[in-house]
Design a protein that fits this description.
By secondary structure, this protein is mostly helical. It contains 22 helices and no strands.
């Protein structure tokens, strides 16, 4: 309303109310749904071996698979993911978030083509390796992208969607694997990967990245798309705030690089070593609880248990279980706190894995036949296992890593911890069937259970509670290099 119109209407300046622009979430939701297609594919890649390996054996593909060949097919994906961190981290800042997601779809498509049409086991393993590079990169880039495009009021929900999408991918793979052959399942994933490649090209680029590269006008255009704005002035304030915070970070980093202590000195100070040590320990407990062995070989485990239910049906139940647990986590993480969830998770996992070990031990002592009345044990134990893993040590190892590692060493320390995590996943997946044949499946589960109990003791003694604290408060309270770390 012009000043002349205001005077004619008899309105005084004090009576004028300026209504701030209320952004719309539609653009953010659409971008999230599209990007989360990549997270669905992460779940699909991780669980493909569960229905596929038994089907490959039944059909005598490649003349029958040896234990070593099966372990390579299963574990090659984690081997590829080890190398994905440095690759994704490099292209993330070189070509942008959106283009990184597009580029990562290329090895994914090539990998699935090799898996579906491989004439020999080696090609199939190479295909799995390539899909591992993609999914490892997706986990990193998707989380960075979604954090940068989302508003504070819905950021938690937006970020939780990646876990829900991953659980959805797992469940869909278990279901489709029940009705379709390994080949059809692979072709479905080829088509889905192409959809990812085409659809991600339509999402806005991260405004934070564009500002970092000096493209403020383009950043404003993308922010308007994300916020549902029709005029530039509606998002101008938010855009200026993004620019100010980006410049502040860059200035701080420049000062540190010229005046501050070296990276090595930052990494080796007492506070940093404490945080990094806790992070690496959590990665050990996360992977050596045997979760990837359970996910990759779920159908085989149920077949060995000689349950009355079809192995693939049991695997579907586990997939539903995972999806339920992921939803549950989003409600519990800020209510019970990190430490309590870790305690419940690790103690519960100890009991579940011990129960599985006892089941297979009794089966062994009964000449390989499941004793009457206990055929339900594997399904119940694995269902509870997946719930407890996904409300505790599974997501919290990553969550705490982002909270407790000091900001000035977070990049290299997080990258190292991520590669270490995938290395452990590779070792567990590659050696699971070998150790099953060597010491028995019951001993494998007892070993995993023992690791979980050690993890419970470690978390009780060393892991801090971070609930309700800002990142600055966490690092100042627990990881001050000049003070002794507070004992909880």
């Amino acid at each position: 309303m012009e000043s002349k119109d205001i005077e004619e209407a008899g309105i005084t300046p004090k009576e004028i109310k300026i209504v701030p622009f209320q952004s719309k979430i539609r653009g953010q939701v659409i971008a999230t749904l599209i990007v989360c297609l990549a997270c669905v594919e992460v779940g699909a890649v991780l669980t493909w071996t569960s229905p596929a390996l038994p089907d490959l054996e039944r059909k005598k593909r490649f003349g029958g698979l040896t234990v070593n060949e099966k372990s390579w097919i299963a574990s090659a994906v984690t081997l590829g993911a080890i190398f994905s961190g440095p690759i994704a981290g490099y292209i993330l800042d070189r070509i942008g978030r959106r283009k990184s997601l597009v580029i990562l779809a290329i090895p994914l498509i090539i990998g699935w083509v090799l898996i579906a049409f491989s004439p020999i086991v080696t090609f199939m393993s190479v295909g799995r390796f390539l899909t591992g590079i993609s999914i490892g990169g997706y986990i990193l880039v998707c989380n960075v992208y979604l954090a940068e495009i989302s508003e504070q009021r819905i950021r938690g929900t937006i970020m939780a969607s990646t876990c829900i999408a991953l659980g959805t991918g797992m469940l869909l793979t278990y279901i489709l694997g029940t009705f379709f052959s390994w080949f059809v399942l692979s072709v479905i994933n080829i088509c889905f990967s192409i959809i990812i490649l085409l659809s991600i090209r339509t999402v806005p680029e991260s405004p934070v990245y564009l500002i970092h590269k000096g493209h403020k006008k383009k950043a404003g255009e993308e922010l308007m798309r994300l916020r549902g704005a029709t005029e530039f002035h509606q998002i101008e304030m938010e855009l200026n705030e993004l620019q100010s915070s980006t410049l502040e970070v860059e200035t701080t980093q420049a000062q540190k690089s010229t005046e501050g202590p070296s990276l090595w000195k930052n990494l080796t100070r007492r506070g940093s070593l404490k945080a990094i040590g806790i992070t690496f320990a959590l990665m050990v407990f996360q992977q050596l609880c045997g979760v990837n062995a359970v996910i990759f070989f779920a159908a085989s485990i149920f077949s060995a248990a000689q349950t009355n239910l079809d192995a693939n049906v049991c695997a579907i139940i586990i997939g539903v279980d995972i999806l339920f647990a992921v939803f549950l986590t989003s409600f519990l993480i800020d209510k019970l706190g990190r430490r309590m969830l870790l305690f419940i998770s690790l103690l519960g996992l100890t009991v579940c894995l011990s129960g599985l070990g006892i089941f297979f031990y009794l089966q062994l002592k009964n000449d390989g036949i499941t004793p009457n009345g206990i055929s339900w044990v594997p399904l119940v134990c694995l269902m509870v296992f997946m719930i407890l893993y996904n409300i505790g040590i599974g997501p919290l190892a990553w969550f705490l890593m982002s909270e407790i590692i000091p900001t000035d060493v977070k990049g290299p320390a997080s990258a190292a911890a991520t590669s270490f995590n995938w290395l452990l996943a590779f070792i567990v997946t590659k050696t699971f069937e070998d150790f099953t044949n060597l010491i028995g499946i019951h001993m494998c589960f007892w070993f995993f259970g023992g690791v979980c109990f050690v993890g419970f003791v470690f978390c009780f003694l060393f892991v801090p509670e971070t609930k309700g604290k800002t990142l600055d408060e966490i690092q100042r309270l627990y990881f001050n290099e000049d003070k002794k770390v507070t004992s909880l």
